Design the sequence.
């Protein structure tokens, strides 16, 4: 299984010597569930859009410091690619910004939330259990780092997970696309440094301090990695049938 990582953002330059990029983060997440998984990185943030939706077994869109409403030159081609991938039945996963731009591409709406920043370990309630979601899990916890949210889901999208802070925390688009607002690929150490470097500038001090206090909590990142790997396998089996 080889997954194309659509890189919509990068690790901040001042952290790059201590932390891998989003491609290796995604690869580790997938390999924990499927050791044979590998990734190919496509820096869509630089305007590098894959030629064909079928040139990888599936796609995953990363986080980004940008908002979908920034309307940067690479965003419209990325949204067109995502719509084509869904139409072609090629599995797509969105993470954070990827969750948001997929929703925008499919007809939803994304905006800065009046709830403010969602950072640290957040818990989400499972609203709908899909075939790839193994285990009897009613809620899960993963790292979060966002100010924007999906405020109107696209027509036909199913809400898979929710919370009081983030009502549309995970969305499914039939059996072809799934997206999560949180970051299962982030480690606690990466989140901690990211929060500390943004504290007082982007993230209010009180919000950052409260988030830092959550980082010792156990997360369900491995479970979500397993779900995502199973989602890709199920989609591949469905296409081969």
Sequence:
């Amino acid at each position: 299984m080889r997954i194309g990582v659509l890189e919509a953002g990068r690790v901040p330059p001042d952290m790059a010597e201590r932390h891998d990029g989003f491609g290796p983060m995604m690869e580790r997440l997938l390999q924990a569930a499927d050791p044979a998984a590998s990734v190919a990185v496509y820096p869509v943030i630089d305007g590098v859009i894959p030629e064909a939706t079928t040139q990888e077994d599936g796609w995953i869109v990363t986080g980004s410091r940008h908002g979908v409403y920034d309307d940067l030159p690479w965003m419209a081609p990325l949204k067109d690619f995502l719509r084509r991938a869904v139409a072609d039945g090629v599995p797509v996963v969105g993470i954070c910004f990827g969750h948001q731009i997929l929703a925008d591409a499919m007809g939803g709406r994304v905006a800065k939330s009046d709830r403010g920043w969602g950072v640290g370990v957040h818990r989400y309630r499972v609203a709908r259990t899909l075939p790839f979601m193994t285990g009897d899990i009613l809620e899960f916890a993963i790292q979060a780092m966002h100010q924007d949210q999906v405020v109107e889901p696209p027509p036909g999208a199913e809400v898979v997970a929710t919370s009081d802070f983030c009502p549309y925390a995970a969305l499914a688009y039939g059996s072809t696309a799934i997206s999560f607002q949180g970051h299962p690929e982030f480690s606690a150490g990466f989140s901690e440094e990211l929060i500390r470097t943004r504290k007082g500038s982007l993230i209010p001090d009180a919000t950052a301090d409260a988030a830092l206090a959550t980082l010792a909590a156990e997360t369900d990142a491995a479970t979500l990695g397993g779900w995502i790997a199973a989602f890709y396998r199920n989609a591949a089996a469905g296409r081969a049938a």
Remarks:
- The first strand starts at residue 2 and ends at 6.
- The helical segments are 22-31, 75-88, 97-105, 188-198, 205-212, 221-240.
- Residues 11 and 21 are 6 Å apart (CA to CA).
